[in-house]
Structure formats: structure tokens, C-alpha cells
Design a protein that fits this description.
There is one protein chain. By secondary structure, the chain is mainly β. The chain has a single domain, classed as BH3618-like (Roll). A seven-stranded mixed β-barrel has the order 1-2-3-4-5-6-7. Strand 3 and strand 4 form a beta hairpin. It is found in: Cytoplasm. Interacts with translational regulator CsrA and flagellin(s). Acts as an anti-CsrA protein, binds CsrA and prevents it from repressing translation of its target genes, one of which is flagellin. Binds to flagellin and participates in the assembly of the flagellum.
């Protein structure tokens, strides 16, 4: 990974997030000093925010495989240029918070192009608990 999340102030979604067709420009904002908990914040609607985390913090074995079409859409030249983020569904506590493993957000740090990718893997959950 060549860039940290705090070095990516603005990303452009090549495909809008499901349910938000007009929102394509987001800022990636670190919410803690370690850069583990972040927020994707819409630049056009500041009230629209998604909590995201890199999978390594909670799912170290997570390694999604994406299609050649996704690689082309995001103009990925090297895997080192990609940050994978999991969208969280915040619960009342860390124990009730879940992550969507089936639809990660991929960010190309070189081009700042991003997309939420729906994976074709029935073993992955859309509501995986962050902690056991």
C-alpha cells in the first residue's frame, strides 16, 4: 500500500453506491489516530456518511478477488495501489457492529478512483460481526 488513508482527501466513485445515484465525490476521513476507523463523507451532501475500516484490523485473512472489469474501471496498475475498505453497520457497541464482506469499497490510491464491488462469493456475509 503506497498511501495511507489520510493521504486520500477526495475519491471519485466510478459507480455510485447502491441507493445513492447522485453521490460520486467523497472524502475519506480518518476518525481515529491509527486510521482504522474512517468515514466516507459525501462532498455534495455532508450529512451522507459511511463508516469504513480496512479489513486487516478485524478480518486479517480477507482477500477479495475482483474481476478484470473492476481492475479496468478503477485503472488499477498495481495491487499495492489499492486500499480495501469494509462498510460498517454500526451497532450500539463494537460487539453489535457488523461489516459488509460481500461488498467492499476499493480505492485506487494512484488515481483516486473508487467503487463498491459486489463479490460473487456466497461464503461472505453482508453482516459479519467485527468481534466474536
Amino acid at each position: 500500500m503506497t498511501a495511507t488513508m489520510t493521504e486520500i482527501p477526495v475519491i471519485d466513485l466510478v459507480h455510485p453506491l447502491p441507493g445513492f445515484p447522485d453521490q460520486r465525490r467523497f472524502a475519506l476521513v480518518a476518525l481515529d489516530e491509527d486510521g482504522v476507523l474512517c468515514q466516507l463523507r459525501s462532498l455534495d451532501d455532508p450529512s451522507l456518511r459511511f463508516l469504513v475500516v480496512p479489513p486487516s484490523a478485524f478480518f486479517p485473512e480477507y482477500a477479495p478477488e475482483v474481476s478484470d472489469e473492476v481492475v479496468a474501471d478503477l485503472e488499477i496498475a498495481s495491487a499495492e495501489d489499492v486500499i480495501v475498505l469494509l462498510v460498517l453497520n454500526a451497532g450500539d457497541s463494537l460487539g453489535s457492529t457488523t461489516a459488509n464482506l460481500l461488498a467492499p469499497v476499493l480505492v485506487n490510491t494512484a488515481t483516486r478512483r473508487a467503487s463498491q464491488v459486489i463479490l460473487d462469493d456466497p461464503s461472505l456475509s453482508i453482516a459479519a460481526p467485527l468481534v466474536a
